Amino acid sequence: MSEEFQQIVGKQSIRFSTPPAIISRCSIVGEMEGEGPLASYFDEIELDPTFGQESWELGEAEMVRRTVSKAIAKSGIATEDIRYIFGGDLQNQLVGTTFGLKEFNIPLFGLYGACSTCGESLSLAAMTVAAGYAKHVVAVTSSHYGSAEKQFRFPLEYGNQRPLSATWTVTGSGAFVLEAASKEQPLEQYPRIMGITTGKVIDYGVRDSMNMGACMAPAAADVIYQCLEDFGVKPEYFDRIVTGDLGKVGTEILLKLLRDNGYEIGKQHMDCGVEIFSNQEQDTHSGGSGCGCSAATLAGYLLNRLEAKEWHRILFVPTGALLSPISFNEGESIPGIAHAVIIETCKGDK
Amino acid sequence: MSEEFQQIVGKQSIRFSTPPAIISRCSIVGEMEGEGPLASYFDEIELDPTFGQESWELGEAEMVRRTVSKAIAKSGIATEDIRYIFGGDLQNQLVGTTFGLKEFNIPLFGLYGACSTCGESLSLAAMTVAAGYAKHVVAVTSSHYGSAEKQFRFPLEYGNQRPLSATWTVTGSGAFVLEAASKEQPLEQYPRIMGITTGKVIDYGVRDSMNMGACMAPAAADVIYQCLEDFGVKPEYFDRIVTGDLGKVGTEILLKLLRDNGYEIGKQHMDCGVEIFSNQEQDTHSGGSGCGCSAATLAGYLLNRLEAKEWHRILFVPTGALLSPISFNEGESIPGIAHAVIIETCKGDK
Fold it and tell me: Using an 8 Å Cβ cutoff, are B146 and B171 in contact?
């Protein structure tokens, strides 16, 4: 392999020769998430579902604005020195992201990967700074229970029943400021993005929009398998392999699919959707979902555990279900996609 | 500026030190576009609005599938050697793109920039190959009249009247295969992406969804202005400055805004939305729109003119209006975004 392609690893992965650092981050969530087991890790818990705005949609935009604003403030970098934002959400036409980012005056790449968007935004952000296209960029991802239920399922006022396989869309947002490292300044004091494995659209023909976990599990299995193969490592290379929002039902499918392909990840695996709520007490059925689920859990809980040296290296794998109400109502299947990001902190004293 | 950031130019631009080449391309359009003045430049004109499928939505997916398939076939590169696809469309949750790309088994970055998506996908694709993350990638963008009108405006069966400022969503798709160049193999025989300027969300407070040109013109003016400033060139540096789908109304606003800021681009400017239809004969009012408009016009007409050496260098500026039916109906303004891409062929005999 010639020098210019030396970062390419295996079939669909990149190993960064100078891994970008996550120098700051912010997570903001809603009331329900603030009553869950990860509450103490979030930067802000907002009790008003419209975040002081006139609608859920504008509320989500305000949540995005606040999350990015705080992440930048915490980084100490001037807003005008952030060269790009990579962002996305679940609202049609990404209006949560675009309206939320209006005031920043920063070039924007709008992304849509359903609930895998946090993995997609971190991947492209890392690629951009590692290539020297920017010194600092922001990646941000959000979802909102009110705007998502209204758009994808039923009006909340309708009070429909939910099967046990259904998940609960997280009201939450996670933003990350990435900085380019160099050989002189490797930024090893921060969590760094060491590599990525980018996922494909995987369709097993599942058609149940109340069972997203089953739709996404094959995509998660595919990208985790490929990551392990590409980097030539075993599951125990990672302290944790963290999927986005498979929930309990999807997790079982994921573990089985990987087991069938020679990898046992039961010891390492955890799922943001399972962690973010106390399903017994909060009655959220299969767990949390939405692209804000993995984003807020990474920005809040996971990076905190890495910084505390409880873990040294995680594989972060947000998982997305690719459907629209139209495709679903026209009887189409629900394919999945997932993007894997390797995040590492230097080993040190616990 | 240190060596690793040498490609950064000005406030929001990149000048590629080894510009990626567009080694093949394909454009597929619908019947209406096939009756327009650019008909002879498209690879395929499909008379069936559902492309042999059961719905407009699946028809758009089939159009995407065919366009990518043909672009790859024309490139002579094996499908498994395409490392990433950067793609997007106007359908909610990008189902045109994700369903259309299912069978390719290629890692996907899903993008949403409204009708600026072709500029966004080419920008990220170029950044990726120029950084050595891939030897070959595909960028694809599409829109479909039927799926877009149904989603954004009224059911077609309703037969609503359209004001003269309204545009006509193009049924069309453009796909591009990009190859990484090197000092030894500069690929100068192909059109190359020399640089990009990435746009910001620009909101002038326009609220008329039947006048998208007015919503997008400020964003186009902003990114063109910044591109000229960042690269330190005058409008005449380009043989053409080609906006996406401002139409006649938006074009007037764009020219005035740039004139007010010291740049007269009247001689260089053209608009894909104005070119793709004979507005007099085809009764399309302000012109064509949709992210397939600029994508198909670039893949069909514009690159043909560059390859024929009629032009040497163009600034391609797809323009997007950021709204959803929900944001619009909640009384929000319609911000715009635009992304600029510099495409060049070597000077030679005409």
Answer: yes
Could you tell me the pTM of the whole model?
0.97
**Is A12 close to B113, i.e. CB distance below 8 A?**
no
Chain A interface, mutation test: which of B55, B90, B112, B183, most A Cβ atoms within 10 Å? B112
For residue A237, give the 3-state DSSP assignment: helix
Q: What is the largest CA-CA distance in chain A?
A: 60
Tokens 């980012």 -> residue = A101
To the nearest whole angstrom, how far is the Cα of B85 from the nearest Cα of chain A? 9
* Interface contact flag, B120 A114, Cβ < 8 Å: no
Residues 6+ apart with CB under 8 A from B275: B37, B38, B297, B301
Are A64 and A322 contacting, i.e. CB atoms less than 8 angstroms apart? no
Q: Would you give the distance in Å from CA B196 to the centre of its chain? A: 13
| CATH 3.40.47.40 placement within chain B | 3-179, 192-344
Query: Across the interface, do A98 and B201 touch by the CB < 8 Å criterion?
Result: yes
Residue A109: its H or E element: strand A108-110
A114: chain B residues, CB-CB within 8 Å: 93
Q: Which parts of chain B fold into alpha helices (H)?
A: 31-34, 56-75, 95-100, 117-130, 145-152, 212-231, 247-260, 272-275, 279-282, 291-297, 303-307, 325-329
Average pLDDT for A318-345: 93
Assigned CATH for B3-179: 3.40.47.40
Contacts of A204 in chain B (CB under 8 A): none
Contact between B326 and A182 using a beta-carbon 8 Å cutoff: no
Q: What is the pLDDT of residues A108-140, one digit of tens each?
A: 999 999 999 999 999 999 999 999 999 999 999
Q: pLDDT at residue B349 above 80?
A: no
Whether B174 contacts B118, CB under 8 Å: yes
At the second CATH level, the architecture of A192-344 is 3-Layer(aba) Sandwich (3.40)
For A177, A283, A321, B198, B226, the CA distances from A78, given in Å and listed in that order, are 11, 42, 36, 19, 20
* A340-344 vs B136-143, strand pairing mode: unpaired
Predicted ipTM of the assembly: 0.96
Predicted local confidence at residue A3, as pLDDT: 67
- Percent of chain A topping pLDDT 70: 98
Query: What residues pair up with A192 in beta bridges, in sequence order?
Result: A21, A344
Tell me the pLDDT tens digit for each residue of A3-55. 678 899 999 999 999 999 999 999 999 999 999 999 999 999 999 999 999 99
Where helices occur in B158-290 by DSSP H, the ranges are 212-231, 247-260, 272-275, 279-282
Q: Which residues of A25-40 are buried (b: 16+ CB within 10 A; e: fewer)?
A: bbbbbbebbbebebee
What is the pLDDT averaged over residues B200-205? 94
pLDDT tens digits for range A297-321: 999 999 999 999 999 999 999 999 9
- d(CA B51, CA B26) in angstroms, rounded, equals 16
Q: Taking CB atoms and an 8 Å cutoff, what residues of chain A touch B105?
A: 200
